[in-house]
Here is the input.
Amino acid sequence: MKLERLISMIYMLLNNEVLSASALAEKYDVSQRTIYRDIDAIGAAGIPVISYQGVNGGYGIIEEYKMDKSLLGSYDIGSLITILHSLSTVFDDERAMETVRKLQTIQSEDRPPNMSMDISGRRGHKTSLRILRNAINSRQVVQFEYINGKNERANRAVEPISLHYNNDTWYLYAYCRTRADYREFKLSRIAHLLVLPERYQRSHEVTRQRTSYERNAESERVDVLLWFSSDSLARALDFFYDGERSFNPDGSLTIKLKLNDVSSAKWLLSIIMSFGDGAEIVEPIELRQALKSNLEKMIQRYD
Here is the structure.
C-alpha cells in the first residue's frame, strides 16, 4: 500500500506546481507526519523534490525534471486509460493496469470516462489471446488445428510473431513451419491450441499480410445490391455498416456493396439466408442464382 501511495504521490507532484502536506494527507487519508516521511523517501530515491515555504507553500518537483504538460492533455490521458484498461482486461496484464493507475493520478478532470471499449473479441478468445501473447513474449513455438477459407482442416506448427485486431476480429501473424512461409490466422478458426517447450531462434519482422477484407477494399470491382425489409434494418446495418445506404418510402433498406470477385462471395450468401424472407439479393444475377441454388439444396435436405 505504501509503494502504491509513493508512486501516486510522484505523479501528483509531477502534475502540479505545489502541493501542501495537508492536501496530500487528506487525499491519501494519512497523517501529515506520514507525508513528511514519504517525501523523504521520494527524495532518497533520486527524485528532486523541493520544499516551498510560506502560506501557499508545500512540495513540488523542479521543472527540468517534468515532462511538458502540453505533450499530454486530459483528452490524451483519458484515451490512454481507456485503451490500456481494455488491454489489461483482455490479457490480464498487471503492468498495463499499473500504468492505468498512474495515469489516473494525473487526470485533471475528476469525471466518469466518456468512452469505453472491449477488444476481447468473441467469447472464449481471452484464453487464446493470453496464451498466444505469452508465447510471443517467450518466443515459443505453438501448435494448433486450423480450418482455412476452403474448409480444409490441418495441424499447424508456427512461430508466433504478433497479434492484430481488425474489423472485430483477432488475427495471429506467424511463421508457419508447415507451409514454410508467413501466414495470418483467424483466432476463431484455431482449435486445440498448444504451446510447445521449444523456443525459436529465427528473427522475424512484424510486417503482417493484409487480410482478405483489406485486399478486397482496395480492389473494388462488382456492384452488389441488397434489399432488406423494415423488420431487418438493425441487423442489416450491423452486418453491412460500410455499404452505401438508401432508405425506401415503404421503410425498407437498399444497400450497395462493392466486391472484388462474385465467385468468392459465398460468405455473403450465408448472411443473406440468415435473414429469411427479410432480405434479397437484387443484383448481380450470378449471386441471385447462387443463392437460389443453395436454397434448393437446403429444401432437398429437409425433404
Q: What stands out?
A: Residues 2-65 form a domain with the Arc Repressor Mutant, subunit A fold (CATH 1.10.10.10).
